[in-house]
Design brief:
The chain is mainly α. It folds into two domains: 209 residues, Up-down Bundle (Growth Hormone, Chain: A); 218 residues, MFS general substrate transporter like domains (Growth Hormone, Chain: A). The longest helix is centred in the last third of the chain and has 41 residues. It starts with 23 loop residues before the first helix and ends with a helix. The relative contact order is 0.14.
């Protein structure tokens, strides 16, 4: 087999200082695994609860506990993987060695969680699902944190990073769209009996796992890393994460991102509820999500030139405000005629998707610039520690919002599978509309204080390049 470390031609040596323009082959290789990751994340997030309760007959509270334990474990696994990948020294580099390692556990745990033996019941079945869910999210961390970190290393260019992360976002969202199709197949299979849905779940998970493995291996084979970045990290893990918090730009973005994600996390949690209990059209739920994802995917080429014209920070602020306004308008749903509700939610979902395309392209690009500032201050390269922090903030916000949403619905008087009172509907759209509006507005205001714009980053890069030239 060809030595993965031997192919050092100009096309793949994209991360060297001064390589400001990445070839499309490099960008595609970097983004390709996002298709598989997006598929796995959304299918497990949308369907595993229903699969567990309706097919496996596991109590919802038990599955909720499993997911809760998984989030607690994230507080350990995210920073651990981030720091360890920063410290890795390998012929494959710091990141690709972790990507290669992630293939087997990511593939096997995704198949595992959808393939419990039919004869298994009770505690054994619960243990099987707990191992699968916690194992999958752990394996996903092993892939996602190094993968995001690798993106920051491939090019030092302020705008080229937006191209790179933009294609990754489009690939991830495209995978999510395929997951929606699979969810429909699984729901249709439920009508034919338990054995049919089990077989369908196994076939889909196996196909997705094989495809994801191939795409990750292709990225490992095609991409290259900077050898001079190895060994440049604080030997003390607590010192490394203290550097993250002491980075004034990182601290601002972490706080703003947490506030933003607390608001936006409710979108994924409550969309199915809004479609069924407020709009009154549960069969449209997948299409509502689709109307959000399609513009999110295909708007990426729009945001890259706009970021050059108006600046990445301004565009990120704009995307937060557009997200807030789009979901804020959802508050009107219970007060409209039934027919008008459908049109409004689809209309607003499209604009929310456009905003998501902007945020998914620009946010990680800015986060990569912040890592350059850390190098300027400390002389170290610890992309893993930074993206572990950003990833954990997202997961924490989601966990907090699940907790809040559950209690709000309970105290409002929510009763499943029945027509809801106006009080419950207003509670739902307050969470779904007004809460994201407030959170995104606060996040946008905070980000206006971010000063690491193109001019500041250019001066930063000049100093870093001068240091590198001086040896």
């Amino acid at each position: 087999m060809t030595d993965l470390t031997a192919r050092g031609n100009a096309e793949t040596q994209a991360g060297v200082v001064g390589a400001d323009r990445l070839k499309w082959s490099v960008i595609v290789a970097y983004g390709a695994p996002g298709v598989g990751a997006g598929y796995m994340y959304l299918l497990l997030g949308l369907y595993i609860m229903k699969f567990s309760t309706d097919v496996l007959l596991i109590a919802p509270a038990v599955m909720g506990t499993i997911f809760g334990i998984s989030r607690v474990w994230d507080a350990v696994s995210d920073p651990l993987v981030g720091y360890m990948s920063d410290r890795t020294s390998s012929r494959l580099g710091r990141r690709r060695s972790w990507l290669l390692f992630s293939i087997v556990p990511l593939s096997l745990t995704f198949i595992w969680v959808f393939s419990p033996p039919e004869s298994m019941t009770g505690v054994a079945l619960i243990a099987w699902m707990a191992f699968g869910v916690i194992g999958f999210y752990s394996a996903a961390t092993v892939f996602i944190v190094p993968h995001m970190s690798l993106g920051a290393e491939l090019t030092p260019n302020y705008h080229e990073r937006s191209r790179l992360y933009g294609l990754r976002h489009a690939a991830f969202t495209a995978g999510s769209i395929f997951a929606l199709v699979s969810m429909y197949l699984l729901i249709a299979a439920e009508q034919k009996g338990e054995s049919v849905v089990r077989l369908t779940a196994f076939q889909l998970s196996t196909f997705a796992s094989v495809l994801t493995a191939v795409l990750i291996f292709y990225a490992v084979y095609k991409l290259r890393e900077r050898a001079d970045f190895q060994g440049r990290v604080n030997a003390n893990p607590f010192g490394a994460f203290n550097d993250v918090w002491q980075n004034v730009h990182a601290r601002l973005v972490i706080i703003a991102t947490f506030i933003e994600n607390i608001g936006s996390a409710v979108i994924g949690i409550l969309t199915l509820y809004i479609a069924q209990y407020v709009v009154g059209r549960p069969e449209l739920a997948a299409f509502i999500i689709l109307s959000y994802m399609v513009p999110s995917t295909f708007s990426v080429p729009l945001w890259i030139p706009l970021s050059r014209r108006f600046g990445k920070i301004r565009l990120w602020v704009f995307s937060l405000l557009l997200t807030g306004v789009s979901f804020g308008g959802m508050f009107l749903l219970p007060f409209l005629e039934q027919g008008s509700r459908v049109g409004l939610i689809f209309f607003l979902a499209v604009f929310a998707g456009l905003a998501a395309g902007c945020g998914g392209t620009i946010a990680p690009s800015i986060q990569s610039d912040i890592i350059d500032y850390d190098e300027y201050m400390t002389g170290e390269r610890k992309e893993g520690s930074y993206f572990a922090a950003f990833n954990f903030v997202y997961k924490s916000a989601t966990g907090v919002m699940i907790f809040i949403a559950g209690y709000v619905l309970q105290f409002a008087g929510f009763v499943p599978n029945q027509e809801q009172t106006m009080t419950v509907q207003v509670a739902m759209v307050t969470l779904y509309g007004l809460f994201p509006l407030v959170c995104c507005t606060i996040g946008a205001i905070m980000l206006t204080r971010l000063t690491l714009d193109e001019a500041a980053h250019s001066k930063l890069r000049e100093e870093l390049d001068a240091r590198a030239s001086a040896g």
